[in-house]
Amino acid sequence: MRVYVIVALLLIGIDQLIKHLVRLYLTASSYIEIIPNFIHLTYQENRGISFGFLSQLPSTIRVPLITGVTAVVIIGLIIYVVKNHRVLAKFEKWGFTLILSGALGNFIDRAFRQQVTDYMHFHIFDYSLFVNNFADDIISIGFVMIVWQSFRKKDGTNGGH
Q: Is the Cβ–Cβ distance between 104 and 91 less than 8 Å?
């Protein structure tokens, strides 16, 4: 279990470092094109959750609500993983490691900055799709890994114990 904790701490550190550099070197009006007409780096603060949901709530309600719910989910996931560590497939363990790393990275932003720093702007030419960050990406990858593993278990190809 130690390796999962070390990797999680490393991923949280990478997430926080990238967000710090973005806040230091980018502005909402500046950007760095990564893949032309598809991805560029910019600086955006998300006061809500996914796609800015709940961002319009007053901060006296929004911050404790989002931070509190996030803390409960993180604690619940940690308890689940610790209790089930022996029966989880390796792929699931890595999936939960990614999800918890990303959730903790965004939780740190919410708890200490009352907002999450986003910077990867996905767009198709001038049509904006969404803006997210490294933490969001590893949460998504971890989720896909767990879903994939659940299909493998139903398949009988448990793989990864």
A: no
Question: What integer pLDDT is reported at residue 28 of this predicted model?
Answer: 85
Burial label, 83 (beta-carbon count in 10 A; 0-12, 13-18, 19+): exposed
Sign of the alpha-carbon torsion through 8, 9, 11, 12: positive
Rg of the chain on CA atoms, in Å: 17
Look up residue 40 and give its two tokens. Answer: 């560029």
- The pLDDT value recorded for residue 38 is 96
Residue partners of 47: CB distance under 8 A and separation at least 6: 55, 59, 62, 114, 115
Q: Indicate the domain borders of the chain.
A: 2-155
Dihedral of CA 101/102/104/109: which sign? Answer: positive
Comparing C-alpha atoms, which of 103, 113, 143, 96 is closest to residue 12?
A: 103
Q: Are 26 and 45 in contact (CB under 8 A)?
A: no
pLDDT tens per residue, range 56-100? 777 788 888 889 999 999 999 999 999 999 999 999 999 999 999
Distances (CA, A) of 58 to 34, 47, 148: 35, 10, 38
Could you give the residue numbers annotated as active site? Answer: 118, 136
CA dist list (Å): 86 to 100, 137, 144 = 18, 27, 21
